[in-house]
């Protein structure tokens, strides 16, 4: 009998792994065209993550052969540190995370995790190691508890609540008449952008991946929600390798390293203070965002 169940068990595992991969992909890439299929090499081993060291080596990429988007990117995220990627709209920030997820392959150069070329390992193992909090999180037409529990198969209610607490969304859920059984999605409760992102953070906390990619929402959030998300992000990112794609520079002033992308190249890199002293593109973006913020605050006060 055991012999009969082993393949079934295996099938279950394959199904769960694929399902996890799919939810991440849908969540993150629901907005882009379906790319050509990226396949595992024959006999590819699983990715073995120890420290969680991420490295882009002279990575080039274009969605179309005649338009290069990334023009030779070198990037290192040391284990347990946070690197923020900033830069003008269309600079290629989200493209970097799509390549790390191996949704597309670089046309030249390579991406390594703990020394292993991500092209040479199984995709299931790669996606298991990465946690993604996308810009616009997709919620299923199901309960809010289910939407969080999706982060890990077999998660119990206490674990789901623990993750919700970590993502600062538990109090909100507890205040709903149906609590964790409240229906969300198209036919249920409509959550705000900030609430949806916190559900995605809770899902990621439950998955507990060694490497985290956080794609900050471009949509404007009220300053209280923004502060709450930043606070949660800090705790989620602590002690794991994190890449934060940020639109608001104020989100990432504490990052260990800030990489400024411009037209597919790294224009500047350093800490917030170093980049301000440099008085280049980052300093210019910072001044502009500060002025915008002051204007908004002045308007709100009127
Ligand atoms: P933003 O700050 O606006 O989110 P970004 O820096 O993240 O921008 P990307 O999303 O990486 O920019 O896009 C970089 C460039 O690649 C853009 O010019 C965009 O139009 C192009 N691009 C993105 N996705 C695709 C796609 N699926 N097919 C073709 N071109 C694409």
Automatic annotation (TrEMBL):
One of its GO terms (molecular function) is ATP binding. It is found in: Cell membrane. Residues 54-288 form the ABC transporter domain. GO terms for cellular component: plasma membrane. Keywords: ATP-binding, Membrane, Nucleotide-binding, Transmembrane, Transmembrane helix, Transport. One of its GO terms (biological process) is intracellular iron ion homeostasis. This is Metal ABC transporter permease. The lineage of its organism: Bacteria, Pseudomonadati, Pseudomonadota, Alphaproteobacteria, Sphingomonadales.
